[in-house]
Amino acid sequence: MGETLLRRVRVALGAGRGYDIRVGAGALSRLGETTRRAVGSEARRVAVISNSRVFKLYGARAVASLRSRDFVVTRWLMPDGERHKTLRTAERALAFLSESEIERGDAVVALGGGVVGDLAGFAAALHLRGVHVVQVPTTLLAQVDASVGGKTAVNTASGKNLVGVFHQPRAVVIDTDTLATLPTRELTAGWCEAVKQGACGDRRLFARTKAFLEEEVRAQADDEGRRQRRLVELIAAQCAFKARIVAGDEREDVGRTDARSRRVLNFGHTVAHALEAATVYRRFRHGEAVGYGMLAAGEISFRLGMLARTELESLREAVRLAGRLPRADDLDLKLVGRAIRTDKKRRGGRTHWVLLERVGRARVVDGREVPASLLRASLDSALRR
Ligand code: NAD
Ligand code: GLY
């Protein structure tokens, strides 16, 4: 597929630290040009971190584009899967960066989904106290969320994403053509995160995401060129939303509870983390668990009298359009409740919920405002739809 449209979204961090996100069908063929512009003419080397599945599909194109802009390119492929997002893998990545003689001013390119992006970003932040990273996300979830905003992390025995640093990329290159090879479940997971972004912070983005999904489901987009353009525009709009939140609250100030704080992006995540933990990370893709998490948070908001029934129904419909979720009606609600109470991300020993006042407007609510019986009824309704 040739390049049809290229959108530029700016993440405005101030003090000259902002960066561009390039979104387009075929954007990968411009990776070298974008990276050169982002890191400057002095940079000599680029170390690509990917995994074998993604590299087989897109590695040659990425490397050729980088070489065409005079970078000396090395590559290292990490094993595929969340369970490899660890300090041990990061140590191997760091050894690769040393062997590649990556110097300050050189760059790491992260080519893959959120796992590769988080791990490569983490290694880039640590090597020589920080070298440039260019994110090249190839899953929908990473394109609309993980690649933007500079959160990097690895998992430890105590839980997910518990060790990490903020390290903003120098550029993000999103080639929407890469989604053509993505398995359906990964697309569903990504669409759930896209629904989340609209639901928690931007009513128009929510409506636009829903309209795109409706068209996908009706398979009306028989004009592939038009579909591609709409996809590029939608992903750019999703990135622009995330860029606005990140620009206003770069390091997720834990004292903020307002509708523009980065914390609102955790909408649906309290129950999602509990579902993932209760099923030992085997049943759900993270985005799928977020799908259920949004339904539960929507139910709680409704039952607390914060959210109108029509709004809850609109949210339910959007989650349905995102795709089929694995079953959750067989899960022991007591186990899920316990997992919520032991979530590592609680503050001051208490759960904090991101709830909705309406679609597009969220608020962080103290767990004490959510009675146990209301939580149980909401989980029951959300998981046993
Ligand atoms: P993933 O990286 O595991 O990718 C999913 C699967 O798709 C993998 O098997 C991968 O090899 C494969 N894949 C990737 N691109 C492909 C393509 N174009 N075609 C075919 N297969 C492809 O999962 P993910 O959902 O992208 O990311 C999840 C991770 O992202 C989690 O670790 C999560 O913690 C993290 N995350 C980070 C942030 C952040 O702000 N940093 C935000 C959200 C999620
Ligand atoms: N994915 C949530 C954040 O980046 O803050």
Topology:
Elements: E1 6-11, E2 19-24, H1 31-39, E3 45-51, H2 52-68, E4 72-78, H3 87-99, E5 107-112, H4 114-126, E6 132-137, H5 140-146, E7 151-156, E8 159-166, E9 171-175, H6 184-201, H7 203-218, H8 224-248, H9 269-278, H10 286-303, H11 309-322, H12 333-341, E10 352-358, E11 361-366, H13 372-383
Parallel strand pairs: 2-9, 3-4, 3-5, 5-6, 6-9
Antiparallel strand pairs: 1-2, 7-8, 10-11
Helix pairs in contact: 1-2, 3-4, 5-6, 6-7, 6-10, 6-11, 7-8, 7-11, 9-10, 9-12, 10-11, 10-13
The protein binds nicotinamide-adenine-dinucleotide (NAD) and glycine.
The average pLDDT value, as a whole number, equals 95
Distance between the termini: 40 Å
Q: What shape does the CA trace take?
A: globular
| Helix/strand/pairing category | alpha/beta
Helix content: 40-55%
Strand content: 15-25%
Low-confidence stretches: none
Highlighted features:
single chain; 385 residues; alpha/beta; seven-stranded mixed β-sheet; two-stranded antiparallel sheet; 13 helices; 47% helix; binds nicotinamide-adenine-dinucleotide; binds glycine
Question: Please, could you describe this protein's structure?
Answer:
The structure is a single chain. By secondary structure, the chain is α/β, with parallel strands linked by helices. Helices cover 47% and strands 18% of the residues. The protein is built from 13 helices and eleven strands. The strands form three sheets. A seven-stranded mixed β-sheet has the order 1-2-9-6-5-3-4, sandwiched between helices. It has a two-stranded antiparallel sheet with strand order 7-8. A hairpin with a 2-residue loop joins strand 10 (352-358) and strand 11. The chain is globular, with a radius of gyration of 20 Å. The chain binds nicotinamide-adenine-dinucleotide and glycine. Nicotinamide-adenine-dinucleotide is lined by residues 51, 53-54, 57, 80, 82, 85, 112-116, 118, 138-139, 141-142, 145-146, 149, 151, 161, 178, 181-182, 186, 189, 286.
